[in-house]
């Protein structure tokens, strides 16, 4: 997966809209992210969710 960087508005507005639409298409096609091409995305989301949960518990 590509490295993440924070978006800036309004410079990245079009890019953010395209990303939102792409995410919606992926989730409509594969809501559980079970397709082989979507597994890396699901795993990345699970890692982020786990990190956020750990932060919330520690707070």
TrEMBL record:
Protein name as catalogued = Unannotated protein
Record organism:
freshwater metagenome
């Amino acid at each position: 997966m590509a490295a993440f960087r924070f978006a800036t508005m309004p410079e990245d507005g079009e890019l953010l809209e395209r990303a939102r639409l792409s995410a919606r298409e992926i989730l409509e096609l594969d809501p559980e992210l079970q397709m082989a091409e979507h597994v890396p995305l699901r795993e990345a989301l699970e890692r982020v969710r786990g990190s956020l949960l750990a932060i919330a518990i520690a707070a």
